[in-house]
Amino acid sequence: MTADGLTYVVGEERDLRDLLCNADVLPLLQGAVSAGAANACLVDQKGEVLWKVDVPTEGSEQVADLALFLEGEPVARVQVSGEPSRQEQLQALAELLRVALDTMVRNNLKRMLTTEIHTTVVKRSFEEQLLINAELSKSEARYRELAQNLELRVKERTEELKKAQVHLFQQEKMAAIGQLAAGIAHEINNPLGFVISNLHTLQKYVARFTVMLQFYRERLELDPPIRVLVEQADQKWRELKLQQVVADVGDLMSQSVGGAERVAQIVADLKGFSHVDEAEEMPVDLNVELERTLSVLSHQLRDKAQIVRELQALPAITCPPQLASQIFLNLIQNALVHCGPHPTITVSSRYDGEHIRVSVADDGPGVPEELRDQIFHPFFTTRPVGSGTGMGLAVAWEAALQLNGTITVTDAAGGGAEFVVTIAVPKGPADVEVL
Amino acid sequence: MIEYDENEKRMVLKLVYYGPALSGKTTNLLQLHECLIRQGRGELMLLDTTGDRTIYFDLLPFFLTAPSGLRIKVKVYTVPGQVCHDATRKAVLQRSDGVAFIADSKLSELESNFASFDNLERNLAQTGLDIETIPLVIQFNKRDLPDCLPESDIIRTWQPTGIPVLMASAIEGAGVIETFTALVGLVFDRIDQRFRLAGEHGLSKEEFVAKLTTVQDELEEPR
Question: Residue B91 is nearest to which of A10, A71, A72, comparing CB atoms?
């Protein structure tokens, strides 16, 4: 067997020289010579000397020639020579030598075979182990690569999802504004309608006044007797029904002014609510934002919901003002959607020196315990498919996060759900000031 | 074949006794050693065994000389039967010229017989040998025991394969010589044409088999 592979084959033929070395044989031959032999040697089957020890002695002749076997096959001869007179002892010596060599051959062969097969088996097992290890490393590398790619892919996908979500938040805000705009349009249209109608009436009235005034100018130029003029003027006055017109004008005017003022108020509320024209960040009183939201929603609330206010003075917080209105708008709309035809909505606020706490409570069915973790997730909705986007509370949650606040939902005192916005406002900072 | 040297006129063949653990492979060799004449066979060499279980292999060599002077040495090996020594089995099986599969007739050993035969087929393939062409005989050993697989079942199972099947009770010496005779006969058939044993070396199959399987003469003097 060589170092580089399995060339050893069980059963390969062995040469005597493979099995015996000088150190094995020579001491034995030497021993025979010391015991009186003139010559002790081991020759192969062709008669060539393999090992030999001799002391040249006159008159010595070969006295023993015995076969040595390997695996049962004669492979060599043990030859001993010496004085013919000592033939008997020398023959016994030769036999002793043969038995010793035979035992040595057998044992060396056994040892060699066991060692070789053991080495072969160990080496082969080791090589198989190496192969298995190589296979394992390969598959491990494959899995590691897969895992790494997976991480990358998940990252990419997460990034995409985040973008999509931001986009959806934006859409949801736009949708809310759209709904609001529709309500507000109706709100503005109403006063605008009667103001226009009043103006038309007033236009007719002004025409009659003009006719009356024209009548006076023409009659006065003729300089008629005053009694006749009064009589004719009274008749004209009655003709033009100016008595009723005069009585109506005042009402029409004040009604119209009222309508115009209502429109002006709505626009002001909307402007305040949307914070157009305002700085990105400014001190904001959440109570004011809450009121603005309520007034913007007034068309939805009027004749429908009862609003209970329990508001306490709050310190101003510095933030983009539209965040607060986003939170309140979505919370109140959520209450309106879920709480039947005539809900009572309680809005309350207070400040305990560390936190501002604004809550919107309703008297609806409440939020089941097991859903409380999910309702703020994007797309989560309990409403039938198509009627809710599931984004309202998620938008409120996002806005609260941007204010460094949280929103939690609990059971309201009188049943129903209470959404609590908590914003940490430590005492003392320059921009905190109790209003 | 281990060796063929035309100049030296020497051929060394390797036969292997294969089979499941404790099926009697070593016993077969012991009986061959016991029964065959000393003339033409060497000593049985049993390599270190622990508790009578073969962990390396056993070896019994035979010798014969063809009329042409070609000296043929036949080395008969056993393999360790235990499953864990598969690497050793493979090493022993390498370059073998014939296989005697020693099966255990006990009903309870049916499974291990099949497992071992599968193992033989696989290991032959892995050492570059083909179970379809290698000389192969099957011996169902331990026929003396109760709860044996009925002979008719064995014949029905193995006859279609064309592999010679022999019944034996190695411990009593029955069937051992017959198994060996069948195997060396197949081996001769396999190598005769290629090495022109009959044609060039004047060695007939009958002579080849007879020389390897002559039963010991009771009167022969021990050496």
Answer: A10
